[in-house]
Amino acid sequence: MDVAYPVGLVVVAAAIIIGFTALVREKDDLHRILLTDLAEILALVLIALVATDLAEALILPGLVVGISELMAVSEVYIAKEGLRAPTGPPFRIEVMNSAPGILALILVAYGIVLSGFTGGVIAAVGAVFYFMCRGHTEQFELIETVSGYAWAFWIGAFFIFMFLPGYWFFGVMIAGGAILLKVMAKMSLVGTMRGGGPDV
Amino acid sequence: MTPNRSIITRISVIISRVENLTALYALLAIVVVVLGLVSLPFIAYQNDQLYEKTLDPESTLDPYDRGGVPFGTTPVKAQYPENSPYAGYVTAYLTPFSQWLADTTHHMGTTIVAHPGGIIDEILYNTRGLDTVVETSILFVAFGIASYLFRRDS
Amino acid sequence: MFNLPTTNIGGPELFVLEFGDIVTYFSPYTAALFVFALIFTVLAIVSRPERQVDFAFGGDAYYTKVVDPDLLRFQRFMAIACGLATLGAMVTGDVFNFTLFASMVGITNIGIVAAYRNRHVLNAAFQYGIVAMLASIPLFGGAAIVLASTGTLSMWELFGGAMAVPLIAKAFLVLGVMGEGMAPFYIAKAEITRAQGAPFILMVHVSSLLLFLRVTEIVISM
């Protein structure tokens, strides 16, 4: 460990120099977004070099911050360039008529069993698939509302942990349920948001 | 660009273009890293870390086992243990279903870790809960920006 | 209540609020910054947007710019979020927590300026967005190096002087805040201030200024 850490640091420093040199030379905005996204991994590598349970926990906020900034900035890019989703013939295959109900049900149910982050992702895949096949216009508002409530629940759970630590079990349950809802809502929103075209 | 401009004019022309901002910042970061590169090999890793990682290949929760018995005290090396009297409880708790998974098979550690009360959540939920609150708020704000920009055009 | 390693953190402590490992505190310095941020957050909540008037040069003609209520609501939300993030960054007692608050300030700043339709302003917002994303590398990297080399993130431990924080970690923190707060790039900020909506634009400046004051304190005390 004593030798590994400085060596790791030097490797990361070399990677930062390479990545940022690429950014200095790159003039195209879209490529800049991609390079930035790539370079953000270096922050996670630096945290991971600490190699404790704490570092494991800190990677998650680091990752989420990177993803959210990427989402906001790419949306700004789309607005800046005035890009539009291309319109074409709708994408239809037979399975999209018969499968969505049952597949979405299975995925959402399995996601709820898993719960937490992973569960949220799996449930969201089910929801995205369902909306993809059945259209999504009216569900949009509903998902946003759910996401807002989940956020509030999460904050509530945090205050239970901090001020009523004896009730930690309720805190875990509330936070676990909230994060399932939150991840699921966010994922399915992101999945359906680009649906300006007829195919999604 | 006229040839007889002073060097200051040239620099200020480059700086004033907002498109060059990224390149400037990246350049600054490179300079700092190159200067810092000299000191990097001398940064010693402090062996006395909080929440140390232990690996137990025999455990059914491997590689995420953080020890402890459900509803019992678990030794957790937190920064201020006085502030979190129930630290370790969340780590050790498993829902009945995941307890069953853990008892049955050796290969579901990654699945079990995704549960609330699963192993990774202790630090994020409890002792460093404020970090997670900020993190979710960042996601919330970013999402607000994205959906506002998206919906404005449609 | 519980034992902190020092009772004197950047001056006598006025108030301490513990959230587990993250112990927020008010010293005279941070309390002053906090009050300053609070005033501007309240201003952002109560103020009405600036109404701009364009004059045609050389004549009597002028036209007023219309303030879109949707835009107004969105910008107010972003300005308040930015204010709350600044408040958090002022009083937090943990290095990683501070970096998270700084990132939140960065992203709300993008949000405030990204709401305009003007191509010029959007372009500037995009470039700042890229810089803010890049800044999270030195920001989190600095916090990670602090954690690895000292074994703690709490400012209560780090400010004592017993811990030797590497210079590169401090430089990374400052570099990160520079990116998130956009502070040294004031020349290009004119691109943003050209847009209407003065009280909310003001929040961008206030937050970056306060972030800078705070990171200076952290870097000097460590």
UniProtKB/TrEMBL annotation, chain A:
Q: Which InterPro entries match?
A: EhaG-like
What are the record keywords, sorted? Membrane, Transmembrane, Transmembrane helix
* Membrane-spanning intervals of the chain: 6-24, 33-52, 58-79, 100-131, 151-181
Query: In this entry, which stretches build a coiled coil?
Result: none
Q: Does the keyword Chaperone apply?
A: no
Which Pfam families does the record associate with it? EhaG (PF09878)
The organism encoding this protein is Methanoculleus nereidis
**This protein is called what?**
EhaG family protein
> Which superkingdom?
Archaea
Q: Does the keyword Transmembrane helix apply?
A: yes
From TrEMBL, chain B:
Q: Which Pfam families match?
A: EhaF
Q: Which organism is it from?
A: Methanoculleus nereidis
| Parts of the chain that traverse the membrane | 21-45, 132-150
Entry-linked InterPro entries: Prd_NiFe_hyd_3_EhaF
The protein here is known as DUF2106 family protein
The UniProt keyword set, sorted, is: Membrane, Transmembrane, Transmembrane helix
Task: Give yes or no: UniProt keyword Transmembrane helix.
Answer: yes
